[in-house]
Amino acid sequence: MIRREFITMLGGAAAWPVAVGAQERVRRIGVLMGIAEDDADTKARLAKFRQELERLGWSEGRNVRIDIRFAPGGAQAQALAKELVALRPDVILAHSAQIAAALQRETRAIPIVFVNVNDPIGAGFVASVARPGGNLTGLLHYEEGISGKWLALLKEIAPRLARAALVANPKNPVYDYFIRSANAAAASLAIELVRGPVENAADIERQLDSFARVPDSGLFLPPDITTIIHRDLIIALAARHRLPAAYSFRHFVEAGGLMSYGTDQINMFGQTASYVDRILQGAKPADLPVQAPTRYETVLNLKTAKALGLTVPPGLLVAADEVIE
Question: How would DSSP label each residue in 222-252?
Answer without folding.
Answer: -S-HHHHHTHHHHHHHHHHTT--EEESSHHH
